[in-house]
Structure formats: structure tokens, C-alpha cells
Specification:
Strand content: 15-25%
Structural class: alpha+beta
Largest sheet: 2 strands, antiparallel
Distance between the termini: 50 Å
């Protein structure tokens, strides 16, 4: 339950109650799927890297670093891929 309280101009309080059970369930489902995807990517033998529109690395796996012989710090920096 989400509760928001706001003071009114005349000194009263307006309370808003919202049931966020469905929202919380969806958030947990997304977190679980995200963890599963991370495990799959980290255990894949193929090097996988996701490149954003600005050429920054937005995602990668362990095999990506191993295949290119790069230290993990390269994937955390935004534009190192341009140097390759």
C-alpha cells in the first residue's frame, strides 16, 4: 500500500492510498528475469557486448573480455570501444 499525504490550503490533509501489489509483483518478476539473464550471459562461451547508440558499452559478459584480452575496466569506460 502506497500512502501519500498532502497539506491542503486550509490546513487539512488529503491522503491518497494506492494498492501497488501488482506493481511490486511485476518489479520482482523483472528482477528475477534480469538475474537469470545475467547468469546466462556470464556463463556463455561466446563473447557478448551490447553497444549503445553513442558507442558506449551498455552490457557485456566475461567471455567478451577474455576473447579480446581486455581487462574488465575497459567495458566500464564509456568510449574505449572506439580505441579498438
Amino acid at each position: 500500500m502506497l500512502v501519500e499525504e498532502h497539506k491542503t490550503r486550509d490546513g487539512g490533509i488529503a491522503s491518497i492510498y494506492a494498492d501497488i501489489t501488482d506493481l511490486k509483483c511485476r518489479e520482482l518478476e523483472i528482477e528475477e528475469k534480469s538475474r537469470l539473464l545475467e547468469v546466462i550471459l556470464d556463463n556463455a562461451e561466446q563473447g557478448i557486448v551490447l553497444i549503445a547508440e553513442d558507442n558506449s558499452i551498455s552490457g557485456h559478459n566475461r567471455a567478451f573480455h577474455e576473447m579480446l584480452g581486455l581487462p574488465p575496466i575497459f567495458a566500464r569506460k564509456a568510449h574505449y570501444l572506439r580505441m579498438l
